[in-house]
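Consider the tokenized backbone below.
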């Protein structure tokens, strides 16, 4: 009997429960005969710096929220076992209810695995790109609470020059992007 090769499939999971699905499937792979048919369970994530209370925090975020990738050979009861895992909605498949789960194309798998590898290094959260002339409020440091206008932006160093009024006189402050917030 020729053994079918394992392909990548996508399970739709309840958003926020992807890690639980992976945990349950990993345990089933180790402890039951499901391990003969399923070799990997993957949730691609990226590491992102976010600012919380003026401090940079490293956070892991799912690339594809609500999806769990499974490398499996779907023979026999494997489809039933995967579909009926806790917090799994169903396989990603064609529009008709009777259609079989569709494997990912090789190019999609390579892009997904490549993207997962590329994003292992922490990335800066680019939501804090400021422009000259924009009004900001200093939220960290000795000038906390002062409002001012951006005069200069240095994107490479992630610093900005903000002009604030101290005792009625304009004063330039050089601050990090994380030390200010939009007004």
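A designed sequence for it:
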């Amino acid at each position: 009997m020729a053994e079918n090769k394992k392909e990548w499939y996508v399970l739709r999971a309840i958003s926020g429960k992807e890690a639980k699905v992976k945990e349950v499937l990993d345990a089933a792979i180790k402890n039951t005969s499901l391990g003969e048919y399923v070799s990997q369970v993957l949730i691609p994530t990226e590491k992102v710096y976010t600012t919380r209370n003026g401090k940079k925090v490293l956070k892991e975020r799912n690339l594809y929220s609500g999806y769990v990738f499974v490398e499996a050979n779907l023979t026999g009861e494997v489809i039933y076992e995967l579909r009926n895992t806790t917090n799994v909605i169903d396989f990603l498949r064609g529009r008709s209810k009777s259609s079989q789960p569709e494997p990912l194309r090789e190019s999609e798998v390579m892009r997904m695995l490549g993207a997962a590898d590329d994003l292992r290094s922490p990335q800066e959260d680019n939501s804090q790109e400021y422009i000259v002339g924009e009004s900001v409020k200093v939220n960290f440091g000795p000038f906390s609470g002062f409002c001012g206008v951006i005069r200069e932006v240095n994107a490479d160093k992630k610093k900005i020059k903000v002009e604030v009024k101290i005792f009625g006189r304009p004063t330039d402050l050089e601050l990090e992007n994380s030390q200010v917030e939009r007004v």
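The chain has two domains: 7-124, 129-182.
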